[in-house]
Each structure stands twice: as structure tokens, then as C-alpha cells.
Queue: 4 jobs
Job 1
Amino acid sequence: MTLFDSSEPPVFSVTDISLTLKSSVEQLFSKIKVQGEVFGVKRAPSGHTYFSLKDADSVLSAIAWRGRDATTINALKEGLEVICSGKLSTYPGRSTYQMIVESAEPAGIGALLKLLNERREKLQKEGLFDTAHKKPIPYLPDTIGVITSPTGAVIQDIIHRISDRFPRHILLWPVLVQGEGAAEQISAAIQGMNAIPASGLNTPTGFIPRPDVLIVARGGGSLEDLWCFNEENVVRAAFDSTIPLISAVGHETDTTLIDYVSDLRAPTPTGAAEKAVPVKTELILQLDTLSTALKTGLHYTLNDKESLLKQFQARLPNLSDVIDTFFQRVDDQSDRLNNAIRVFLNTLSDKMTYLSQLLDSYSYKSVLERGFTLVTTPEGTLITTKKQASQCARLNIGFWDGQQPVYLSPEQKTKKINKKQSVISETQGDLFHEK
């Protein structure tokens, strides 16, 4: 059977044939799943991923356009057995057919375990699982952030358990916990919780406080069901969280990579609620016990201190006696000081009297009292020679009872000189006649 009834087939251009084949293939294989081994993986600068799927006999080219979810990209590892979902198409430029992959996931437990082990070793070498990075869980948080599905038993178990133990404010960030897009939602929720300011966030729907602790949780399931919690973007988001994080994924025997990087792992979601808050009644009882012990201890301590104080008080002297003795000592010292001052002043007075008498004995006034005089110029300069006296027009003569000025006018001075010369001449004449 052919596509054309006429005996003469029509003539097609190369492009017509290519487009016809592309349309036919895409209509016939619009939704398929293909299982095979990944090889020849190439990440183009455009963000697209080119690879091939092979089995024992055949090879199928494939491409995953950029923007695919992390589960798909991580599954496209060299040598990994995967199941790809998408459609078949053709590439007219090379006359080839290829699979357009919408999603991919490891095929079978063996492939998943291989990928899981490789990823765990990689992240462990980077130090993401080191205990040095673990943050302490707050003892009594005000707000608990929960990242899980909004439906199902998990969120209800957490709410009820926290309400029973110690009611706290619960902030739910709803996410998918399985399947395509789950890993992206979980990592975005962790980052979103950490992005809330310490002072909280005001929104049109109300105030959103910043959580003090986070719980990432889901119920039990197969390895495939829990696979989103093994994705690298989820693990790195948990590692980068500045808010302490409790992982509670699956049952007690289930282990995912987020458990290694979380600050605390709980065996179940209910267990996470128990680790997030203490039991209020037990805390109250413990506080009552501690309060009683504190009061008892304080009572005994005060009694011991009171007894010790009384012993010291008995050994202390009477305060009144101490004060009286002190005042008596002050009186005694005051008397001694007064006597010492009196003796000092008397000694000083006697010394002053002696020095005064000694000064008087050396004073020129006592000499004047015996008939001597003191001759000075009007300015007070002492006259000690005849020549000094002859040069002054006025002299002050000091007696013991005061001073008397003596004025010598030029005429008097001249007469005095002439008289003196006359006396000298007469004396010389007498002497001559005698000879």
C-alpha cells in the first residue's frame, strides 16, 4: 500500500519530504517512553543536552531542551540506564530522527543506587556532610516552618504532635514531594524560608514570621518515590540554610541524601515534631521541681549565712565602746597638740626676744646715744670723709632722738674756706716769729 493512488507518483522537494516525514513521525510517536543506556552526553553552551540511548542492537539520538527539571538533567549520566519520556521527531538538516526528551529517570533500583552512591561520594568529598556544619536545634522555637505536601497525613501528624507537646506557630510551605518538579519546589521552599527577614514579612494576607527551625518531611515510599530528596539542588539548599533544619523523609529505615546534610535527622515526621519542641507538661513539672529545689537551697543558704553572721556579730566589740575610746583618744591627742603648740610658741618668742636684743646691740642708734652723730646727704648717702662733706650744700646730722638738717650756702662756704686759710696763715706767722 502506498500513499498515492495514481500510477505516477508526484515529485516532492527535499524540504517537502522532510516536513512530511517530520509531521508523520511526530503524529505517530507523539507520546512515548524509551529505556536505554545513556552515552555521548554533551552539554551545549545554549543549555541544551545532546546524548544517545542505546541497547544491545540499536542507537537512538536524543535531545533535552534547556529548562528541563533537575531530576531529568541529573539522570542523564554517562552509562546510566534510564527511562526517557517524550516524543520522536526528525531533524531535516541531517535527515535523521531523534527523541525529544521531556523527562528522564533512572531505570530500576540498580541504576538509582548507582547514581545515589556516586552523588553521595561527590557531596561527601565537598564536605557537605561534615558535622562541623551542623547547627543546634533551638530548645523552644516560636515559629516552626514545615515544608511538605499540604494534603495527606504528614502535615496533620506534625500539627497534632506539636499541639499536644507544646503549641507553637506553624508556617507551612506546600510543595510536591514526589515526581517531576518536586525537587525544584522543595529547594525553592528552603530558600524562600531563609529569605524571610529576621523581623518578619508583612504581606497582603498577613504577617509572616521567620521560622526558628525548619522541618522537611514526607511519608514513606520506594526509592523512586523519595528520589527528589536525593537531588543535588535539594541537598545544597539544605546545606546553605541558615535556619536549623530537621529532615523527616520516609520511615525509620529510609535514608536520603538530605538526611546527611540536615542539622538533625528524625526517623519519621512525627519524630521531627517531637524533636522540634519539648513536652509542655514535662517542662512545667521540671520547672516546678527546679523552683522547689531552688527555694529549698536558698532557705538553707540563708539560714547558714544568718548563723555565720550571728557568730561574727558576737565577736565584734560594742560599737559605743569603740566610739567612746576613739573620742577619748581624740581628746588626748588634742591636749598634746595644744601643749606642743604652746611650747613651740614660747620657744619661738624667746628666740625672737633674743634676736631683737642682739639687733639692738648692733644698731648705730646706741652709739648715737653716747654722743656720736651720723652725717648723711639729703638722699641718705653716708658721709665718711671731709671731701664728701665739702661737696654738699646740705647735710643731715642724725642724733639719737632724730635728724637735724644743716644748710651751707655758697657764701657761707666761701667764708668758711677763707677763715680757715686765715687761721692757717696766722698760725704759720706765729711759728715763723717764734723761730
Job 2
Amino acid sequence: MNYIAYSEQDSIAAAVISELRRLVKFEREGSSEGYEIYGSASARLIAIKSPVIHSEFLGKLGAERIIFVSRHSSSKGITSFTAHAAGNWSASNEFGGAPRALSVASPAYMLSFLKIMRRINETAMPVTYEATHHGPLLGTPSLFIEIGPVHGGLDTSVARMFAKGITGMVATEPAIYGKVAIGIGGTHYPEKFTKLALEEKYTFSHIMSKYYTGEYQMIGEAIQRSEQKAELAVIDWKSIRSENKQNIIKELEGLGLGYEKA
């Protein structure tokens, strides 16, 4: 069963969950130190008292998949609906997880969320992947679905729309797509990869932005740490420095994984 997790400290996520509970009847099942569990016919809801980026304990609950609902922050200030996998490409784990370690991605469900939100989106807010970043580190397949940045409270109609995106993702079969790929290059908001996925040419598991392409030794982990294993790499070719391209191609060849340029 899918587990939907959010932090009670996150007012934006809490607003979305409030609308979700208007759509789906959840009954309290119990509690443990740090969280409470509510159940429905289609999913369990986990209300966490601490930030979700530090919720490694969820991996012990036996979930089939964990869907994190979260506030999104952006230095550019562009409010978006986003989906991404969890993990850290670098030695820093300032925002949870472990250094140079990736959680198990859920490619089909990330794409399902993006496709549903694109279809029901009644705002001008973009729908986009984000590159893999921050914790928690989990062996259970997981994904983050986010909205933000939001200044002040979240409009009720937008929160309800987001909640409908969650119910649609949980209640239906995963999205139709072409090949499962890891994305390499591009910015933190990889427009090319989002476009290709929404055109059903690929679905992406982990996405390594151009800022971390020097960590090419982690490509093997990115291939393995996914609910659906990557069949190839898609590279945003022009975004990557030439010396990093050479190392990436050599690494892919050693792993026996083909690539295509975007």
C-alpha cells in the first residue's frame, strides 16, 4: 500500500492534506513516537511531527511506496508543482539523508503526478521535475511532490487541486511512458527532461543536474536505486563541461548503459 507522508510543521503540506481528507476518508489507526497513522481503502496517511527530510524511520513501516507531500522552496521565487527523487550527489547532507547516497526512486509515480497536474492545473504555475536532492535516505521506493514557494497561506482551491492530483496518482495505474532513464545535466528544474517525459518518450528516475556531473562515479547507484531500473541515460549535452562529458561517457560504457543526447 502507498503511504502518504507529511510534516505537521509544514503548513503548506498540512493545507493540502486537509483538502485530501475532504476527498478521502481516513480513520486513525494508531501512533508511535514522532508520528500518527491514518488508514483508508487506498492509502495510509502518516502525520510526522519532525521535518520529512529526516524521516528514515518510515522505511521500517513496510510501505510499498512513500509519497512525500511538501512545501517547495525556490531561490527564483517561481511557484511550481514539482516532483523529484530523494538523495544527495555530494558529500553534503545538510538537508537530510547521507552523503553521496540515493534513495530508491519511483519513476512511474513521479511521471503520473506530473501528467495529472498538467491535466487538471487551472493556474499559470508550471509543472516540472526537480533534480534529485535532499533526504531522507530510504530503501523503500519514494517520491516528493511539492508546491511552492508560497508566501502566506495556500489558496484553498490550489490545495484542493493538489489533493486531487494525489488521489488521481494513488487511485490509477502508473503513467504510460517509453523508456526509464536517468537524466544527466540541465538545471535544477530540467525543462528538457520534463518535456520529454510529458511527451511519453521517457520517464526519469534520478536526475543529476549539471552542477553535480563531476560526481559521475554515482551513476551506477542512480541506475540501481530505482523502482523501475533505468534502461539508458539521457544527457542534456550542451549543459555539461567537456571534461565531465568524457568521464560520464566512460562511466556509462563501463556500466554497459547506452545514452541519448537531449
Job 3
Amino acid sequence: MTVIDLQVLGPAFIAGLLVLATHVPLGTIVLERGIIFIDIALAQVAATGVVFGGLMWGEVSGWIIQASAIVAALACSVMLVWTDKRFPEMQEAIIGVLYVTAAAVQLMMLSVNPAGSEYLKQLLIGQILWVSPMQLAGIALVYAGVLALWHFRDLRRERMIFYGVFAVVITISVQIVGVLLVFASLIVPALAARAAAGRWRILIALNVGVAGYFLGLVASALFNLPTGAAIVCALVMMAIIVGLALSRQKPAEEAQLPPEAVPGE
């Protein structure tokens, strides 16, 4: 790689590390609660807020568009808290309906934009290669606050805080890495580490994520591939390798235990 490549890929890799720092812990909560598609639904709602802000105010101010996306995601989170309390058995179905509705509204708004197809592509796969040091500093500050909340509060039980934090994180991430990579960063590493012992899950998931981002960025630079798509594929590849290794290790460990100590017996 050339010096120019490293100047581009370095900030992109740091952005990936920041995304993983918040998405992996939140992803483990999402898996435990069984609301798998909440992340992609909220990402789609945030992306729709971005499109709406751009359609209404153009390029007047990036902060206005950012506010539009955050308001859309937070309003969606409030609704999901309400439905989670009253219709918990239908929450996953409601999240799915929310996703397709947001996608449909987004497509209708983009249909009046001459550059709508290119804008849609950016929303799906992100612009991680073009992240600036100033953006990284702002993201790091917000994500530090999110990690503090995750550490000091029980987000598994406090639904309102969980959904609010989730909305803010997704809104920021979707504008950097895109809808597809937001979903992959939340679910794929956490899913890969699901078979690991509880104390190791987050560490293993983080390592899967870091390896996936690194390999995806390198592959995109070497073979001129779309960066977001390359990272998604690398994450899935690493998750399969680690998941298979963990699934083989667990039966071997159980075989060494006395019969009364084997889980489920």
C-alpha cells in the first residue's frame, strides 16, 4: 500500500474501532433480548431522517440534517419502548414493519432527487474512507459517554435508556459506515462469540470485529472493492471461522467433565 492508502485507511480503521467499541456491547444485549432486527430498523429510520433533512434543507447545515436523523431515531425509539411494554410478543414483527415502512418512505423521497440512486448507495455502504479527524474526535466523545452508560447502568433492564442510547449510536454510525455495516457490526461479532463463556464473549466478539474491519479495508484497497461491502463479507467470514472453532471446543470441554457436571444433564 502507498502512503496515500495508509492516510485514507488509517482513519477508516480507527472509525471502525470506535464503531465496534459501542456496537459489540449493544449487540450482545440485542441478541439476549431476541430483537435482532432493531438495529437495521433504527438504521433505516435514521437514514430516512438524513434523506428528509437533505430534501427539506439541502446542504444548508450538516447539523440540521444530523438533528433530523436523531429526532427520527429517538421518536422511533420512544414508539418501540411503548410497543415493547404492551406487545412484547409482537415486538420483532413490529420492528420488521417499521423497517420496510422506513425503507419505502426513503425510496419515495429519493425518487424526486436526480442523484437519488447514488445517495441510496452511500446510505447502504457508508463513506468510511472519507471520515475526517474532526469527525473521529466527535464520534469518540459521544461513544465514550455511551460506554460510560453501558458500564454504570443496566441497559438490559432499563429499556428507555437502552433505546435512547441505541438511537443515538445508530444515527451516528449509519452516516459513517452505512446501514449494512451497522447491522453487521452489531450482530455478526456478537453472534460469533455466542458459544463462548460469558466472561469472554465481548472480548472474542471485539477481536472478530477488528479482524473483519482490517481484512475488509485491506481487500477493498487491493482489489478496488466497495469498502463497506468488503468489510461486511470479511466480518461474516471471520465469524464463521470463530463460531465453528468455539462450537467444536465446547463439546470437547463437556466431554472432559463428569456426567453430573455436563450442562443440561
Job 4
Amino acid sequence: MLAFVLVLAWALRTYVFQAYEIPSGSMEETIMTGDMVFSEKVTYYFREPDYGDIVTFHDTEIPGRILIKRCIATGGQTVDINDEDGLVYVDGVPLDEPYTDGKPSYTIPGGVSYPYTVPEGEIWVMGDNRTNSQDSRKFGAVPVSSVTGLAVLVYWPLDNFGLLEH
């Protein structure tokens, strides 16, 4: 029975869902530092990440580290950031981003050049806390193959418990 439980736990963690503790404020106010989040893996067996999805993915710069950000654009789309108005544009259209709580989006010195066309098979990700997030503005688009799941639920602490809006 113990072996069955261990194998079941391993299978669920490997193929169905994973729990993560959020170490930074890059997704605030959507997800707070210290929140515990479930990321499910099943959705991306059937489709690729899409605009608005909160994704977990392998860090392209530090092996073994998992990051969590919001998908802003997908392969073939062009991202532009206007430092004057603080808006993000995808294919020339400014995004309506209520999850940023009105914080402006600026380019990051030493980051990518704009306009930036997301390569096929990759996604552009940004933290909701645009003034405190190292994201695609810094490291560019990330491969869809590096995505580990769709963040769906904050389960701890209980006062932050709830489904994540995508």
C-alpha cells in the first residue's frame, strides 16, 4: 500500500500538478510573496500557452529554477513597449491589463530591443508587478517547451485562497 501511495504521489506531481512557493514580488498583487500556488500540467498537453495565462516555466538563465509570469504574446506576435505612456503593445494594439494595478511597463536597460517579434514556438512573459519583475523584457521570449504548467490556484495562506484569473 505504501509503494502504491508513493507511486501515485510521484505520478500526480510529475504529470498532473505541482505546488510552488512564490519567492518574489514580481506577480503582486495577483500572487503575493510567500503564497503557495498549484500549477496544473494537463491543460498544456492539449494546447499551448495563450495570452493571459499565468505560466510556470524553467528559468532560461538559472538551471533548475522555476519562474512564474503571465503570457503576454505568443509566437509570431510583435511586442512593443512605449516608455512614454508605459503601455505594452502587441501587434500595434495597446493591451488592457487590469492585473498590473495601473503600474507602467518600461523597457529594461540592457534588455531586448523593440519592436520584438516573438519567435514561433516561444512566448513573451511578464510579471504583473511591472516595476519589480525580471521577465522577457530582460531575457527575451521563452520556449514553449520550457513551460511546466498553468498556475490555477493560490492555496496558502488561507486569506489569499482562490482561483487565479487568466
